[in-house]
Amino acid sequence: RLTFKRPADTRRIAVANQKGGVGKTSTTVNLAAAFALAGMNVLVIDMDPQGNASTALGVSHNSGDPSVYDVLEGRAQISEVMQRCPDFPSLEVVPASIDLSGAELEVADMPNRNNLLRDALDQFLEQSPTHYDYVFVDCAPSLGLLVINAMCAVTEMLIPIQAEYYALEGLGQLINTIGLVQKHFNPQLLVSTMLVTMFDKRTLLSREVYQEVKTHYPSIVLDTTIPRTVKISEAPSFAQTVISYDPRGLGAISYREAAYEMNDRSAVVLETIASRRNEN
Ligand code: ADP
Ligand code: MG
């Protein structure tokens, strides 16, 4: 049995990698579900106009529906647009629809454009009667204004790395962008977690990629890896996470182990963030 202790403070985590198809959305929704299953209160914010996280979590997100777009443009608060995930009573979702694709241009001239999400989230967490243990922000595959908003709204970055030949390509650019956000907007932002996804333990390549990532980032790569499984890729077409779709399968077990490992590191992570806050 995996028992989870609530983190001392809300952990705010953006899941980002400007490469598409590396497992950002799968990681966001399945970790969120794993934490909710373990009794944590979880909020997922979908910041990708594709709305894949909204789909997997079973919440409606048609064009015109209340969504994160209305939050960013100041027409609604998070509490007014969030929807409960049907499978997990302690998991709330701020959906995204294709409407969000217009937001980057529409907010580009606003003086506060980088902090639209942060301001809405701060206000929500302060006023919410529920204490949230984990907030996840699923990012689009870019380094544009929506992703910058995500990086400004959180204290942690989780970078999923696909176990493939070009795994580390582009990582330098992502780390640079995070560095710029730290320098100019959000000094406490911490790259707390890397998770190797689509791992195939039978291939030498997968093991080599894991070793390479581990060598470069020894303290932040989770020991747990996420295997490539058909169930993980099927679950979203049933508007489910793999945690509910195939609870006993290897995909669900791995995401639950990854969540446990992350939760276990809460004290260290929160202390690191707090010490950065005090330095600045
Ligand atoms: P991203 O959000 O980075 O674009 P996704 O999580 O949407 O990545 O994953 C890309 C594709 O790979 C999706 O079709 C998804 O279902 C599939 N996928 C993700 N993780 C796994 C996995 N561990 N095993 C098999 N398929 C996966
Ligand atoms: Mg995605």
Automatic annotation (TrEMBL):
Signal peptide: none
Coiled-coil residue windows: none
Pfam family, one: AAA_31
Gene3D superfamilies xrefs: P-loop containing nucleotide triphosphate hydrolases (3.40.50.300)
Residue ranges of every copy of the AAA domain listed in the record: 11-189
Domain of life according to the entry: Bacteria
Function comment: May play a role in septum formation.
Family: Belongs to the ParA family.
The protein's name: Chromosome partitioning protein
